[in-house]
């Protein structure tokens, strides 16, 4: 499926359970779902088009909130190792709604990242959190890592 992202080459393979895609961040093959297709493209976009260091990125990052285990789709760390960006993906067929933003905000209550990104592969939203003024603003584009 074509996304509103550049095209990248991926390692795919068939298994008994279906098609798999190699996740370079997790260093393993994972089930190729529509959401995973978005994740893999968006991660490559961040690395190749926005200069995000792959070594500071993780997919399916675990966190605990109110004694409930949750997983962030992608977390990008600052150079000091603290969470800087959280990315939440949806399949292209899923409309991004307030519930999607509520989900990523819940994760951020634990991680306190400065940037939140939501994408379904077609539409991408980036929000910068201003903790000092207890506010946020939506950015017109996904910033380059060195400017974060």
Could you explain how this protein is built, in words?
The chain has helices at 34-49, 98-111; strands spanning 12-15, 18-23, 28-31, 57-65, 68-77, 83-89, 115-119, 124-130, 135-139. The chain is an alpha+beta fold and 148 residues long. The chain has one domain (42-147): tt1808, chain A (Alpha-Beta Complex), CATH 3.90.1570.30. The strands form two sheets. The chain has a six-stranded mixed β-sheet with strand order 4-5-6-7-8-9, with helices on both faces. Strands 1-2-3 form a three-stranded antiparallel β-sheet, covered by helices on one side. The longest helix has 16 residues, at 34-49. It is globular, with a radius of gyration of 15 Å. The termini are far apart. The mean pLDDT is 96.
Q: Main traits of this protein?
A:
tt1808, chain A, alpha+beta, 20% helix, six-stranded mixed sheet, globular, 148 residues, three-stranded antiparallel sheet
Secondary structure category: alpha+beta
* Radius of gyration from CA coordinates: 15 Å
Main pleated sheet: 6 strands, mixed
Q: What would the CATH topology be?
A: tt1808, chain A
Distance between the termini: 31 Å
Count of structural domains: 1
- Strand order of the biggest β-sheet: 4-5-6-7-8-9
β-strand amount: 35-45%
Q: Which CATH architecture would you pick?
A: Alpha-Beta Complex
List the total number of helices: 2
Number of strands: 9
Overall pLDDT, averaged? Answer: 96
